[in-house]
Amino acid sequence: MLHPIHRAIILLTAARAMRCPHTQLRLRLGAAEIRDTAAALVSGLEAAATDIESGNAQDALAAWTRATDAVAVGSAEVCLPALVATDAAARDAGAAAKRSIIDAFGTCYGRKALYDAIKASETTDPLLARARDKHVARFEANGLALADAAAREQVAKLKLELGAECAAMEQEINGDSSTVALTRDELEGVPAALVDALPVGDGDKLLVSLKAPTLTPVLQHARDPAARRKAYIAGTSRCPENARRLNRVVALRAQIAGLLGFASHAEGTLKGNMASSPDEVNAFLDRVVTRLKPKRDEDYASLLALKRSETPGADALDPWDTAYFGRQIRESKGIDEEALKPHFPASEVVPATIKALGEDLFGFTVRGPLDDAQLWHDDCELYEVAKDDIIVGHVALDLKSRDGKFGHQMVVPLRPALVNGAPNCCAVLGNMGDANGRLRFREVETLLHELGHVFHALAGAPKPSILGWAWPMVPWPGGVEMDMLEVPSMLTQQFVYAPAVLAKIARPHAETGASLPSKTIEALAENRHLLAGLGNARYIAMCRYDMAMHSLASAADVDACGLWQEIYRETAGFTEAPGTHFASTWYHMCIGYDAGYYSYLWSEVNAVDAYKQFGDELDAAAGRRFRECVLEPGAAAGGA
User: Fold this and answer.
1) 30 with 57: CB under 8 angstroms?
2) Rounded distance, CA 635 to CA 614, Å?
3) Strands 390-398 and 381-387, how do they pair?
4) What are the two backbone dihedrals, phi and then psi, of residue 410, each rounded to the nearest 5 degrees?
5) What are 397's strand-pairing partners?
6) Where do the DSSP E strands lie in 388-423?
7) What is the DSSP string of 328-392?
8) What is the rounded distance in angstroms from the CA atom of residue 163 to the CA atom of residue 516?
9) Which of 108, 314, 555, 584 holds its CA 20 to 30 A away from the CA of 421?
C-alpha cells in the first residue's frame, strides 16, 4: 500500500500536459480533479505530522517545513477556482478544498506532540529559526500553550466553526449578482453608453448591477436623488444572511480570545503587529480624526452647498449624495472621470503601468502579456518578471468583472518561491473597466495599488513558505504583519498623481488621438487630496467599527451590523439608511483583515514617508533601495 506522502506526490505530478508552460500550475481543474488534488494535499500534510510525532523524521523542523511548503505550492490549483471559475461546481469544489486545507492546518497546529517537536527543534539557520518561531506562534494561537486540555479542544472546535462561517460569508458575496431595477428616467444623467448596455428587466426597467464598475457611475451621475437612494440602499442591503453570520463570527472570535487569555479578539490579533494593541490603534485613529475634522467639515459644507442648489432647504447630506456632488466638485477643478476614460484603455494602460513600476522604478525586466499562457479564463493575461536575466516570478491579471467571480480587488499568491523550486507566482483579481474596456481614473489608482502588492509578492528570494508573501486569503500560513502588508501598495498608488508617471501611462484619446492635456495632469496632481476629509472620515469610521466589533470581551448577543450606525454618525457625520447592513458584503471581515482594517492608514503613513524619497519621479535608485530593503525580505524580516 502506498504511503500517503507518495500518493500525494503521484497525484500532484499527474496531468503535466495541463500545466501552464510558464507558471507550471494547472489552473483549469474541474470539480473532481479539485477534490482529488485537495485530498492529496491534506493527506500529505497529515502524514508528515504523524511521521514527526512518531519520531520517524530525523529533523522535525525540516520535515514540517517541507510539508507546509508542499501545500503552499499546490493549494492555488484547488483554491483559486472558488474565486474565479465560471463553473459553479468548480467554484463550490474550490471553496470546499480551501476549507479542507484550512481545517487540516488547524488540526495539525492543534496537535500537542507536533508542537513539542517543532518548538524543541534547533537550527543555526536564521531563516529556519524565524520560520520555527512563526510556526510555534501558530500552534500557540490554537491554544497549545494552554495547560488545560479541555480548553485546547474547545479552541480547536470553535476555530473550525469560525472558519466555516467565514468561508460561507465569502462565497455568499462571490456568488451575489444582485441588481436594482431603475427606469431610463431614473437614470437621467448617467452616461448613455452605460445605460444602453444595461440588461432589460420587467416593463420599462433596466437592471443595474450592484458591482462597483456599474454602481459607482450610477451613484456619481444619476440626477434623481430618489434613484440614487434606491441604488445605494440596494447596494448596502445585499447578502442579508451574512448579517447573521457576522454576528456569529464576532461572537466566536471573542470566545476564542477569552479562552486564549486575551481581553478581546483585537488584543490577540494585534500581538506582533507594528501597532501591537487596541489602545495603540485607537489612539492612532483618534489622532487622525482630530486632525481630519476641520477638513471633513469643510468638505461636508462644500457638498451640502451644492445639494442646496438642487434641493433648497436641505439641512444634511445623505450617504448617496457624496459620489454625486463629489463628482461635481472634481469637475469644477477640471477633473472629469468620464472624459478621462478614453485615455485609459485597459489593454494599453495595464502593460504600460506594469512596466513603468517594474522596470523604471524597481529595476526588473517585465515581459508580456505572454501569448501561450494557460490560465483559468480567456480574459486573463500573464506577465513574466525577471532580475538580472533570472525569472523571479509571474503575475496573472484577471481584471474584468463577471458573475461568480470575487467581487472586489486583491492580489492572491499562487505559489511562493522555494529553494530549488519554481519562482514566485501571484494573480491580480479585479473588477475594473466599463463595457468598452476603459478604466476610470480611480481604477488606474487601484491598479497601481495592486501592483505594489505584486512586486512585493514576486521580489522575494526563495525561502520557507511561512516567510513568503501571503495573507489570510490563502489557506497556508505565511505573510508579513498586516500593518506592513499595505506599505508597498500605498506607496505605488501615489504615483498615479505624479505628472511624469501619468504622462507615461495615459494613452492618446481613443476618439480624437489627442494626448492627455497637461492642464488635466496638473489638475489631478494639484487636487490629489480633494475631498480627502470626507473620504477618509468614512474609512476611519470603518476602522473604528472593525475595532469596536473585535474589542468586545463577550459578543454572544451582539448586533454587529447595528454597531455601525453610531460610529458612522460620530466619525463621518452621516446618518446611515435604516435597515441597511453594508458589512454583510464587507469582504475584509471574513478574509483576514479583522482587527486589521486600520492597516491601510497605518501603512499609508509609512508609505508617504517613503514616497518623499521619490519626489513624484520614478527614481530608479530610490526604487532599488525600496526593493532591497522592503520588497525582497518579505516576512523574513519584521515590519518594524
Assistant:
1) no
2) 24
3) antiparallel
4) -165, 165
5) 381, 428
6) 390-398, 410-415
7) HHHHHTT--HHHHGGG-BHHHHHHHHHHIIIIIIT--EEE---TT---SSTT-EEEEEEETTEEE
8) 48
9) 108
Q: Cα-atom radius of gyration of the chain, to the nearest Å? A: 25
Residues 117-125: contacts with CB under 8 Å, at least 24 apart:
117/52, 117/53, 117/60, 118/52, 118/60, 118/61, 118/64, 120/60, 121/59, 121/60, 121/61, 123/61
Q: What is the pLDDT of residues 255-306, one digit of tens each?
A: 999 999 999 999 999 988 889 999 999 999 999 999 999 999 999 999 999 9
Specify the DSSP class assigned to residue 219. Answer: H
> Which pLDDT does position 567 carry in this prediction?
97
- Amino acid at the residue 514: A
The grid cell for 315 is 439641512
Confidence at residue 168, expressed as pLDDT on a 0 to 100 scale: 95
Beta bridge partners of 147: none
Does residue 484 or residue 118 have the better pLDDT? Answer: 118
| Cell numbers at 400, concatenated | 474584468
pLDDT tier at 14, thresholds 50, 70, 90: very low
Cell numbers 478544498: residue: 97
> How does residue 637 score in pLDDT terms, banded at 50, 70 and 90?
confident
- DSSP-assigned beta bridge partners for residue 395: 383, 426
Q: What is the mean pLDDT of the chain?
A: 94
- Which of 453, 452, 462, 466 is closest to 392 using CA atoms? 462
- What is the Cα–Cα distance from 149 to 425, expressed in whole angstroms? 40
Give me 498's grid cell: 505624479
Please report the DSSP string for 446-472 in residue order: HHHHHHHHHHHHHHPPS--GGGSS--T
Alpha-carbon span 434 to 342, nearest angstrom: 11
Residue 41 makes CB contacts below 8 A (sequence gap 6+) with 8, 12, 70, 71, 74, 75, 78, 101, 104
Max CA separation in the chain (angstroms) = 81
Helix axes 31-54, 60-79, angle to 10 degrees: 170
Q: What is the C-alpha to C-alpha distance for residues 130 and 480, in angstroms, rounded to an integer?
A: 12
- How far is residue 9's CA from residue 12's CA, in Å, rounded to a whole number? 5
Q: How far is CA 325 from CA 312, 339, 439, 529, 572, in A?
A: 15, 17, 21, 16, 16
Which amino acid is residue 437, in one-letter code?
Answer: G
Q: Please check whether residue 590 is in contact with residue 252, taking contact to mean a CB–CB distance below 8 angstroms.
A: no
As given in the structure block, the three cell numbers for residue 218 are 450610477
State pLDDT tens for residues 398-416: 999 999 999 899 999 999 9
Torsion of the alpha carbons at 563, 567, 568 and 569, rounded to the nearest 10: 120
Q: Which of 553, 546, 537, 554 is nearest to 583 (CA)?
A: 546
C-alpha cell recorded at residue 296: 471633513
**What whole-number distance in Å separates Cα of residue 61 and Cα of residue 65?**
6
List the grid coordinates of 363. Answer: 529595476
Q: How far apart are CA 407 and CA 174, in angstroms?
A: 6
Task: Report yes or no: 395 and 425 within 8 Å, Cβ to Cβ.
Answer: yes
Cis omega (within 30 of 0) on the bond before 312? no
pLDDT digits (tens, 9 = 90+) for 183-223: 999 999 999 999 999 999 999 999 999 999 999 999 999 99
- Write out pLDDT tens, residues 509-562: 999 999 999 999 999 999 999 999 999 999 999 999 999 999 998 867 788 999
Neighbours of 1 (CB within 10 A): 5
Cross-strand bridge partners of residue 427: 396, 412
Length of the chain, please? 640
Query: Rounded distance, CA 540 to CA 197, Å?
Result: 35
Cα 427 to Cα 147: distance, rounded to the nearest angstrom: 42
